[in-house]
Amino acid sequence: MKNRIKEYREKCNLSQGKLADKCSVSRQTINAIENNKYDPSLQLGFDIAKCLGVGMEELFISGNGGKRNG
Amino acid sequence: MDKTQKVIAVLAFLVFLSIAGFSLYKWIRFGTIDAGGIFLSFVALSYFFNWLKWRDHQGGGEKDELDRHIETQSAKIGYYVLMILSGLILFISEGTGNFNEIDNYPLVIVVGLTLVTVPITEFIYAKKFK
User: Where are the transmembrane segments (chain B) (predicted)?
Assistant: First the structure.
């Protein structure tokens, strides 16, 4: 699943390490998610979205490449 | 990895090399196979890799979501690797690919068990969700 974590993280001036600390995971975990090597659990997805102040639907892009109908 | 952690990793690997090397030397020089030495060398190798990945000689410690994912996937892959290795050890040690010529029945049972362990475990574990 693609995501826009890096984009929103940079908007918030957060490093991978700081975001990782806020979400109680390692920096490697955030890096793997950002690079689409690992899909986070629903809980971690919510935690990341909450830390970045956005909704899950803004942060994660589903299989159709994030294109929305209408 | 800080300096102390690197030193521990190097020491663990040296211990493995020493035990494995000594066992190999005894085998080549005197023709004796030291089961204790073989086992201890595997213990040392396990210590080394656990330390490299988890900074813990038993592979424990605090783990986050990705670590648990790595653990789960590695367990699955490791099971199939073990299945193949046990089959290889059986056929190489017996020097034949024909089951009717094999005398090491305990090892045949171990190889057979690797085939049924996962289906049986899945069957029993699936009952938890019924």
Answer: 7-25, 31-49, 77-93, 105-125
